[in-house]
Structure formats: structure tokens, C-alpha cells
Amino acid sequence: MNALPSGGVIPELFRGLFDDAAVFPPGNLPLAEAVPAHRAHRAAWYAEAVGPFLCGAGRLGELAAAVSAGTVPGAAGADDSVVAGDRPLKVGLVLPGGSIELAPALAAAAPFELAGVELATRDAAEAVAALDRLLPPDVPAAVELPRELLRGDGLDAVLDVLVDSPYRAKFRTGGLVAEAFPDEEELAAFLTGCAQRGLPYKCTAGLHNAVRHTDPETGFEHHGFLNVLLAAQETDRAAAAAVLAERDGEVLAKAARALTDRQIVVIRNSFTAFGTCSIAEPLGDLAALGLLSSPSPLHQEDR
């Protein structure tokens, strides 16, 4: 049974998958350009694929000031009619400084619709306690630990803490140096550890394209987000690593088309989203693979 095309223009496998990280490296789009671009994405035919606008805690004041000056539509009480009707700007709050940032960041985010919190920490239990204490009950959160703490027995210990909480795990799949990219065995260990526990997760950085590849300019080994989607249903580490290592887009596209409705539910209950500095690029990849029909051109970010 081919379940992929069902459910409207955006297949269920890709709905809400792409969190807008345009202001983060390597995109680094200026805030005054990134927010209107996000509003355009949210008004486009592919809007169901687009997650919240991600903003670091340190830039909330800048965002609020821009809204107060009337330069950025989309906060609560602002005029949203410019781009996306009455849809509010949904902000995903990124806290790289740990739990100490949580209370002030939540206060600073008050003018916006808070879609979630992503908290980096070196202590999963402490982060869970802080989120339990301070986070509004209707706001989801993800907890990220440094990759060096997720190797060996450390991975099981962290995932065991999170599985007993209402929060997702977050895993960094790339960055600005080669060492920031985990190999397929390391990523497979994380994916299958989460799958075995029924623990949802999101990824961030490096997943700019659908298929695993070597960047011709940097030489960095990038995972493909389609590889990660397909590997998300695996509980065997070797099987997951094999899927992550696949570089043939047609092989991956064929496997995606063969997914059943049930498999798609399992995959998206596990791999919930990833941050991408471009929305058009991953959607363009899906269209090129025949996994997405484009009724009109994709909105290209001006950077």
C-alpha cells in the first residue's frame, strides 16, 4: 500500500517536519528578513510542512523591539494581515545556555505564541526538573545534551531520564566543522535507543538535503533527512545505520513510497521535526525525487 500521497498537498510523512532556523548558522538570515520570509512560508501552498520560527533566547529582545517598531508582523496583537491573514507567529525558543535561561526567556517570549522550548544542558535530570517547574503545561519541550555525553552508557542513562518525562530528546546532526557531524553508527545508536523506548526526538543542523551526501565545498558528510525518516522505524542499530548510509535517492524514494499509513505514524511519532536554515531547499529535494508535487514555485529565501 502506497500511503505517501494521502492527506492533501503535503504528505503526512513531511507535515510539520521543517522547523524554520533561518537566523541560525549557516544561513544567518537577518531577523528583519527572516520573519517576513517565515510568514510567507506559512501562507504558501506548502505551509503544512513548516514548523515554528526558531529564535535563540538572546534574540528575543531584538525580535520584540522590531515588533514594537512595527517592522515585523506576527506577534500577539500585531497586524498579521500583511502576509498570512490572522495566523500568529509561532516561536520555538532555543536555549543554548541551559536551565538558567529558562525563566527569563519565557518572560521575554510573552509577546509571542510559544510553540516549544529547546533546552541544551549537561544534566538531563536537572533540565527535566526545571522544565517541570517553569514550563506552561501546554508547551512542548526538547532536551539536548552534548554528543560526548551520549556515547556508551551515557546514551542509555540520558534516554532513560527523558523517557520518564513529557519531553523529547534533541540530537545535533551537524554544524560548522567536520567533527560536528556524527557518523551513521553514532546517529543510529541514538535513533534506535529512542525507538526502543518510544521516545520522540527532533534533530538540528546539517540536514539540509533529503539524501546523505558529501558536501563538495566543505567535504563534510551530511546525513539526509529522508534517510533519518526511514531509519526512524528501525530498532536494530545495524539496520538503522545501513539506511543512514544509503546515498541513492531513488532507493530512498522507493522505500518512502512503499511506507504504509501505520509505518508513517510510527516514524513521525519518533522523528518529529528538524531545524533547517532553508525551507525551500528540502522541499525542492522532495519534489526532485518525485515525493512532493509543487502546484506553484517554492518561495526562495533571499540571503
Using only CA atoms, what is the Rg? 19 Å
- End-to-end C-alpha gap: 41 Å
Adjacency order of strands in the biggest sheet: 1-2-3-4-5-6-7-10
Helix content: 25-40%
Describe this structure in words.
With 303 residues, this protein is an alpha/beta fold. 36% of the residues lie in helices and 16% in strands. The chain contains eleven helices and ten strands. Helix 5 runs parallel beside helix 6 (184-197) and helix 7 (225-231) runs antiparallel to helix 8 (237-245). The longest helix is centred in the middle third of the chain and has 14 residues, at 184-197. The radius of gyration is 19 Å and the shape is globular. The N and C termini lie far apart (41 Å).
Summarize the structure in short.
With 303 residues, the chain is of the alpha/beta class.
Key attributes of the depicted protein:
single chain, 303 residues, alpha/beta, 8-stranded parallel barrel, two-stranded antiparallel sheet, 36% helix, globular
List the helices and strands and how they pair.
Blueprint: E1 18-20, H1 31-43, E2 50-56, H2 60-68, E3 90-95, H3 102-108, E4 113-120, H4 124-134, E5 141-144, H5 153-163, E6 168-172, H6 184-197, E7 201-204, E8 213-214, E9 221-222, H7 225-231, H8 237-245, H9 249-257, H10 261-270, E10 271-276, H11 280-288
Parallel strand pairs: 1-2, 1-10, 2-3, 3-4, 4-5, 5-6, 6-7, 7-10
Antiparallel strand pairs: 8-9
Helix pairs in contact: 5-6, 6-8, 7-8
